[in-house]
Design goal:
One of its GO terms (molecular function) is cobalt ion binding. InterPro entries: CorA_cytoplasmic_dom, CorA_TM1_TM2, MgTranspt_CorA/ZnTranspt_ZntB. Among the domains are: about 1-130, CorA soluble domain-like (Beta Polymerase, domain 2), CATH 3.30.460.20; about 260-320, Methane Monooxygenase Hydroxylase, Chain G, domain 1 (Up-down Bundle), CATH 1.20.58. Helix content is about 60%, strand content about 15%. The protein contains ten helices and seven strands. The protein has helices spanning about 20-30, 40-50, 55-65, 120-125, 130, 135-150, 150-170, 175-205, 220-285, 300-320, and strands at about 1-10, 10-15, 30-40, 70-75, 75-85, 95-105, 105-110. The protein has a seven-stranded mixed beta sheet, with helices on both faces. Helix 2 (about 40-50) runs antiparallel to helix 3 (about 55-65) and helix 8 (about 175-205) packs antiparallel against helix 9.
Length: about 325
Amino acid sequence: MLINSAVYHDGRIVAEPGLDGVSEALESRSGFVWIALRDPTDDELGLLQRELDLPPLAVEDARKGHQRPKVEEYGDMLFAAMHLLEVGADGNLEVGEVHVFVGPRFVVSVRHNSQQGFLGVRGRAEREPHLLGQGPGFVFYALMDAVVDRYFPLIDAVEAELEQVEESMFQPGQDRQAVVQKLFGLKQRLATLRHAVTPLLEVTSKLHGGRVPAVCMALQDYFRDVYDHLLRIQGSIDAARETIIAATQVNLTLVTIDESLVTKRLAAWAAIFAASTALAGVWGMNFEKMPELKWAFGYPMALGAILLVSGALYWRFKRLGWL
């Protein structure tokens, strides 16, 4: 579906052609065209391929989706694939994609399986015509910058939730299994973020310094800024992963400690009942030569001895912290 189509000259809109009039609009005017599509049909992509002479392999990637983040060169054109991440209803991260075709006189963004639009990016660019006047390269930077900036709230949310889990781990009566499930869920979200960030970090490093594609040549400082943002996010992901590993180990240690405390309690009560059982067993043998069996105070004495020994053991185990 076509979201927007506009021809810009010196940073201002001069025409809004349809998909079938893009090549004609570019021939009759100077400037470049910026086209935005969402979940396009094969016919729409085929029409754009003919109008702008897009690379067949790149169009095929945009048609199928499920691409790893990348930037590929096709002559004087670039094709970029980036992941769009958003929190789903179940709290997990849902992965969409945006594919960007960048040529000397055009930018085409193709969005798949995502509710995140780029109207804000277009509005920002149109409010700064001196930047938009730098051509398709600036639009490419603006789109990439918007994608990367949307990763920051996601990693911030993971870090905040991780702090809450760490604080709750030491609360008495905490469900250790629930803690492990939360940590595993956070680890999955970090893995999804990492799959989006790490490949993009690698390809963004090729857009500044050294051999740079022609459409990005004048905007190397901008792409270096995006690279710095990705480095920060990558560092946060690595730090959060290490924290999750440490928290998981601490949680397992706490489980072991809890089991040890239970074992101590059971052992203490077993010792108390064992002593009582031993005394009762002695007086329950009913040998003929046991004078206390015929003594009037034999029964109260036996009960008193059992209570005294049990009480002494209970007091001792209580002082040791076993009960």
